[in-house]
UniProtKB/TrEMBL annotation:
Signal peptide per UniProt: none
Protein's name according to its UniProt entry: Aminotransferase class I/classII large domain-containing protein
Entry-linked CDD domains: AAT_like (cd00609)
Gene Ontology terms, MF aspect: pyridoxal phosphate binding; transaminase activity
Species per Swiss-Prot/TrEMBL record: Lebetimonas natsushimae
Keyword line: Aminotransferase, Pyridoxal phosphate, Transferase
GO biological process: amino acid metabolic process
Length: 378
């Protein structure tokens, strides 16, 4: 099932030939539209407003002063890969070989690398819209596995009746905030191992889990591909730094792909990320997002039908009492109430949902709630 060896040139050519079939990432269009209005509260984009650990800025400035502007090796700085490996030991008690880690430009290029090893990708829906677009770029078949309110968990029986070679999971999920707990994750990992399925685990929102117990897929499946990055939990979105962890037999092929589509991740950003693992600071960040989640959920749960999220920083809101056209609803909310949210159609066939990101402080969230209530005449 898994490919190895040197990637063919056709892989890169397909990245360009498939462009016309991609869906727009609607949230970015909403961001652009919102720039036309003053006094907008931006709850549409999944970008932390909290600054990263102060040491990150100091480390980045030091790298600039030392003229560290040159390419790194395609896998990335060795000491950063070692830091990430230590993170897995500290955070999950899982051993990771730094040689199995490749530093990527955000997580986007990590997915492009991972999807090279696939043919048919199955993934729970609702889910991150770019997954399908990445698959489209590489001419891979993409299958949605429906999940449902309130827990949005994967049904193993449904997986058994579906034909695919790769399962793509996301925990915490974007947009629902659902977390796959350790026991369920173990069952999923065992299913993939026992049925010769490649498992790709998107763990970008790890760290931002508020009560539920969880772990990495590598705990139960050493042959999983795990993708993570510094944009969410570490509050470094614009640094564009992520990572991918691969099993031994895929590392060299993935490195060759990285050489072609990356050369290397941004050097200054890699140096900055060396100071990202400030756990004391990160705990404060998590507590702040939890406080925001609790406030916004309690304010909106009687207005929209919402499953309380386990992690990330989103509320997935059923608006069917008010509209069955999420794009129109989001546009009117923006123009009339000056609150920007993401239409549910960005995440699949969910035209009666919107996603609200609690990536603003409590004062802004209080104003946003008042505006939403006035908009809905509540």
């Amino acid at each position: 099932m898994l490919k190895s060896g040197i990637p063919k040139l056709s892989f890169l050519i397909k990245l360009y030939k498939k462009r016309g079939k991609m869906k727009p990432f609607i949230v970015m269009d909403i961001v652009k539209e919102a720039q036309k209005y003053e006094d907008v509260i931006h709850l549409e984009i999944g970008e932390p407003d909290i600054l990263p650990s102060p040491e990150i800025k100091n480390t980045a400035l030091k790298a600039v002063q030392e003229n560290k502007f040159f390419y790194t090796e395609s896998k990335g700085l060795k000491n950063l890969r070692e830091k990430i490996a230590n993170h897995y030991k500290n955070f999950y008690n899982v051993d990771v070989n730094p040689e199995n880690i490749i530093i990527t430009t955000g997580t986007s290029t990590a997915f492009l690398i991972a999807f090279y090893f696939t043919k048919t990708i199955a993934t729970p829906t609702p889910g991150y819209p770019c997954y399908k677009n990445f698959a489209e770029l590489e001419n891979k078949k993409f299958i949605n596995i429906p999940t449902s309110f309130p827990d949005y968990q994967i049904n193993l029986e449904k997986l058994k009746s579906t034909e695919f070679d790769t399962l793509m999971i996301s925990s915490p999920n974007n947009p629902t905030g659902t977390v796959i707990n350790s026991e369920n994750l173990k069952q999923i990992c065992n299913f993939c191992k026992n049925n010769d399925k490649l498992l790709i685990s998107d763990e970008l929102y790890h760290g931002l889990v508020y009560e539920k117990e969880y772990t990495t897929a590598l705990k139960f499946n050493k042959n999983a591909i795990v993708i993570n990055g510094f944009s969410k939990y570490f509050c470094m979105p614009g640094f564009r730094i992520g990572w991918i962890i691969l099993p031994d037999n895929l590392v060299r092929t993935a490195e060759i792909i990285a050489q072609n589509i990356l050369i290397s991740a941004p050097t200054i950003s890699q140096y900055a990320a060396l100071s990202a693992f400030d756990y004391k600071y990160l705990e404060k960040t998590k507590k702040e997002f939890k406080k925001r989640r609790d406030f916004l959920y309690n304010e909106l749960k009687n207005i929209f039908n919402i499953a309380k999220p386990d992690g990330a920083f989103y509320l997935w809101c059923d608006i069917s009492k008010y509209s069955n056209n999420s794009f129109d609803f989001a546009n009117r909310l923006l123009k009339v109430a000056k609150v920007a949210v993401t239409p549910g159609i960005d995440f699949g066939d969910f035209n009666n949902y919107i996603r609200i990101a609690y990536t603003k402080d409590i004062k802004d969230l209080e104003i946003a709630v008042k505006r939403i209530k006035n908009f809905l005449k509540i």
